[in-house]
Amino acid sequence: MTSIISQLGEALWLLILGMGLVYLFLGLLILGIHWVARFYGPEAKPQPVPPAARPAIPQGLDPKLLEAIRIAIFQHRTREGQNQ
After folding, report:
1. pLDDT tens digits, one per residue of 5-45
2. Nearest-5° Cα angle at 32, 29 to 34
3. Which residues are within 8 A (CB) of 81 and not within 5 positions of it... i.e. 6 or more apart?
4. What span, in angstroms and rounded, lies between the C-alpha atoms of 18 and 7?
5. pLDDT for 38-67, tens place per residue?
6. Are 62 and 26 within 8 A, CB to CB?
7. What is the main EC category here (predicted)?
8. Domain limits for position 69
């Protein structure tokens, strides 16, 4: 008959092994989903904003700065799939 200490040690080893395998499987599953989405997902095609849809430039602001902000917002929305 084995002692309780050795049984607890074996139980702890099985716990660590089981949890490690679960985390390994879930990590590989997440990486696999990202890989499939990257290679087989739909390609995002940026749609340019027509000039008539752009708002008027407020007085006193640099037009280059506003254009850079507009492009950054457009890229963020495109990346997040929120572009209309």
Report:
1. 999 999 999 999 999 999 999 999 999 999 998 888 777 77
2. 110
3. 44
4. 16
5. 888 777 777 776 766 566 666 777 888 888
6. no
7. translocase
8. 46-84
Q: What is the DSSP letter of 43?
A: P
Q: Are residues 58 and 35 in the same domain?
A: no
Q: In terms of Cα–Cα distance, which of 62, 27, 66 is closest to 49?
A: 66
Question: How many other C-beta atoms are found inside a 10 Å radius of the C-beta of residue 78?
Answer: 14
Mark whether 50 and 76 lie in a shared domain.
Answer: yes
* Cα 69 to Cα 65: distance, rounded to the nearest angstrom: 6
The one-character DSSP state at 21 is H
Cβ–Cβ under 8 Å, residues 52 and 80: no
